[in-house]
Amino acid sequence: MFKSGIGGGDADRITLRGYDLVEDLVDKHDFVDVLCLTVTGAFPDANQRRMINMFLVTATDHGLTPSALATRLTLHGAPESLQGAVAAGLLGAGSRYLGVSEYAARFMQRHLAEFKARQGPAEGDMDAYADIVVSAERKAGRRMPGFGHPIHVEADPRSAKVLRMAKECGYAGEHCRFALALSEAAGRASGKPVPLNAAGAKAAVMLDMGMSPEFGKGLTLIARVAGLLAHILEEREQPISQAVWDAARAS
């Protein structure tokens, strides 16, 4: 017989991680509480709740991004499929857009582990090691995930807030320090600012919170559903998809 420890139900009750949905959760816990309970098996404390709420808020929408355009164009082709339009927007979450936090977290995890594995690394060596990492990535022609931004070229306004909140909540640890060291090293190597973007800042904080890269990406996807729903509703009232298609055909 197949079983799941997440939730279940019968004719009389619905359970989630052992809690009665109606009696224990509804009108007693907010969505962030229940999200954490569902995914991790435990309710968040006040600092965890504050940070996770921030992750959700900062990822809600970023304008006419590829994900939003995919959602709008899918809705144009299948106006009856709201869920299909939302899914289309989420399917493109990856290493360039919307899913960057996962890749940034894995990048920082790997390189920080290598740094710590060195013979007696001192904290002061982190800047020098960041220079080594940046040099290797530039030589290989790779962009570091979580650094730089096509719009926020000088500084991502979300990153400072994310890191400030992390410090206030006690989560500004070694991954945050390493992320800032990489940003500074990238700036030195390129001769211009290479800011830690929001995805990179959130990746560092999530790791310092003990969260997995997958959970971080999942939070981004959950948040972006709200933004994509907003684009669907706006598309129905103020459509742009036909004009996008006409422009593509005319090119």
Beta percentage is under 5%
Distance between the termini: 57 Å
Number of strands: 3
**What do we call the CATH homologous superfamily of the largest domain?**
Cytochrome P450-Terp, domain 2
- The mean pLDDT is 93
Spatial arrangement of strands, main beta sheet:
1-2-3
Structural classification: mainly alpha
Report the CATH C-level class of the largest domain: Mainly Alpha
Kindly report the CATH topology of the largest domain: Cytochrome p450-Terp, domain 2
Total domains: 2
H/E element sequence: EEEHHHHHHHHHHHH
Helical content, roughly? 55-70%
Largest sheet: 3 strands, antiparallel
Shape: flat
CATH architecture of the largest domain: Orthogonal Bundle
> Which stretches are low in confidence, meaning pLDDT under 50 for 5 or more residues running?
none
Number of helices: 12
Radius of gyration: 21 Å
Annotate the secondary structure layout:
Layout: E1 7-9, E2 14-16, E3 19-20, H1 21-25, H2 31-40, H3 46-58, H4 66-77, H5 82-91, H6 100-117, H7 126-139, H8 157-168, H9 174-190, H10 198-208, H11 213-237, H12 241-250
Antiparallel strand pairs: 1-2, 2-3
